[in-house]
Amino acid sequence: MRIRQYGTFALLVVCTVAIGCGGGGGPSVAITSLSPLSGGVAGGTLVTVSGTSLGGQADVVPVVTFAGVPATDVVVLDSGSLSCTSPAGELGVAEVRVEIGDEAASFSGFTYHPTPTLTAVEPALGAIEGGDTITLRGSGFLVNDAGEPSVAIGGLPATDVQLLGDGSLTCVTPFSPGVGLYDVTLSNANGVVTLDDGFECVSPPSLLLVTRATGPAGGYTDVTLTGTSLDVEALEVSFGGVPATHVVALSATTLLCRTPPAAAGPVDVLVRTYGGTAV
User: Fold this and answer.
1) What percent of the chain has pLDDT over 70?
2) In whole angstroms, what is the distance from residue 258 CA to residue 248 CA?
């Protein structure tokens, strides 16, 4: 404030500095980019906001919102960037707004995509020790910047995840802590989806006794196999490497089949199920 004297009149001059309008000589808050530019409607996407004067002020924490909904885990990285976790939102483009004290800036360009879906696991049975290749089916595995997927079975990570398309992928099952049903979870940049009890780990079979341990080389002999865990769907019963026919599981301990033609002499009998192999 200055007072100037002009003859018998005095002029009072008042200078005002704008607060929150980029005054004081420093650059105004501005947003120039977001990374990534999209995420799932369930939220949970880690977003980096870049621009100018995003470092906040002393004792002032930046407030970030997506379409008016506050983000969480806001962390100032430096004067030109901060990170936050997107909240849940609605499908479409959302405005991202950063408020620091009396200043604010907006950026229209974060897109909410549908979360993936998971409808089936094929096959839905496997061995306790893992190592089985299974196929997951659903949607949203690839499109909308879904990124690299991860799969867990019973909370344990599957390996060798291979995208086949937007609706299917393959992976290798992990070692399981025991027999039973386990949830299958798929995660990507657009969200997390779980198929409850989507995969069952089963016990390996054992083979204890073969009734009618002899038969003609021409085959077609009905044989009863006795053991354990024989009621799990049998993928293969063979005699000397040649598949048997008419395979029927009567119970967990009894399996019927008909021998194939084979060369004369002793042969190995093999039973293979989703739980493993017994000879």
Assistant:
1) 89
2) 10
As a whole number, mean pLDDT of residues 121-136 equals 95
At 220-230, the pLDDT tens digits run: 899 999 999 98
Q: Which helix (H) or strand (E) holds 258?
A: strand 254-258
Which amino acid is located at 159 in the chain?
T
Alpha-carbon span 75 to 145, nearest angstrom = 24
Cβ partners under 8 Å of residue 99, min gap 6: 62, 63, 64, 65
Q: What is the pTM of this model?
A: 0.72
Confidence at residue 147, expressed as pLDDT on a 0 to 100 scale: 87
Nearest to residue 278, comparing CAs of 206, 220, 219, 218?
206
DSSP codes joined into one string, 192-241:
EEEEEEEEEEEPPPEEEEESS----TT---EEEEEEES-SSPEEEEEETT
pLDDT digits 0-9 by tens, 86-114: 999 999 999 999 999 889 999 998 999 99
Cβ-Cβ contacts under 8 Å for 47 (sequence gap 6 or more): 34, 35, 36, 39, 71, 83, 84, 85, 86, 96, 110
| 177 φ/ψ angles, rounded to the nearest 5 degrees | -70, -10
Task: Report whether the peptide linkage leading into residue 243 is cis, meaning its omega lies within 30 degrees of zero.
Answer: no
Token duo for residue 266:
């002793």
**Six-digit token string for 235:** 């993928």
Report residue 189 as tokens. Answer: 């940049």
- Is cis: bond before 116, omega within 30 of 0? no
Assess contact for 85 and 44: CB atoms under 8 A.
yes
